[in-house]
Amino acid sequence: MEILIISGLSGGGKSKAASFLEDSGFYIVDNMPAAMILKFAEFCAGGGGRYARVALVYDVRTAESFTELFHVLDQLKSMEAACRMLFLEASSETLIKRYKETRRRHPLQREADSLEAAVEKERALLEPVKQRADFVIDTTGLSTARLRSELLRLFNGGGEEGGMTVNVTSFGFKYGLPLEADLVLDVRFMPNPFYMEELRHQTGLDRPVSDYVFSFQQTHDFLGKLEDLLSFTLPLYAEEGKTGLVIAVGCTGGHHRSVAIAHALAEYIRQKGYQTEEHHRDLSRPI
User: Which domain holds residue 168?
Assistant: First the structure.
């Protein structure tokens, strides 16, 4: 079992980090007191693998004594659970700007004369927690996409590609474009198996249709160029912070050419290490 404690300064990005980690497969619990962490870890350990990766958000609002948190960390690390702590911070100027933009009240503002004093008070208060952290990320100059990319690098064993799902779907143009498509590929220029009597009632998932589509050099040339394009762009999409990319491949009816190409394309992307889903939207429609 993997347990990650997410802590840091208010406004440093803990909520965003938790959301990104949840997308990566972590079970998230917000504002858990240190006294409850061990009991929760025991509960997760008995979950039969359902809670294999857990991230607990811990901040100054739940802190009665950091000594108790450190004791819990020591106990967790002595167990079979892999326990690490992430600390997020930012410059005081950045934190003040974020609070003014959101118009939220800093949790320590009642105990300080100003927002700036509250930020500095919390920074000093949490310094011992920062010193115990396994990872410290300064979000001052990080965009949302770059923060996600850094979290994937640290906590997703599959790398950035493991955090993005690529959905390859075939469709028929006569039924309209898939509204969710990010990239649309038109393969209607390819010879159409529909006009072959023995192939008409088969689909691009059937070997005779696939063999026919790939019997033409233009099909291989097209797929090769497309693979070059995706080899270049997919890592950039993942680095930019995309969690999902939909590639739609269309022919006239969505039964033959688009299905064969989408199937081959999905296999290529899967071999590149990306989480890949394959769908054929119009396959059940009448020819």
Answer: 162-280
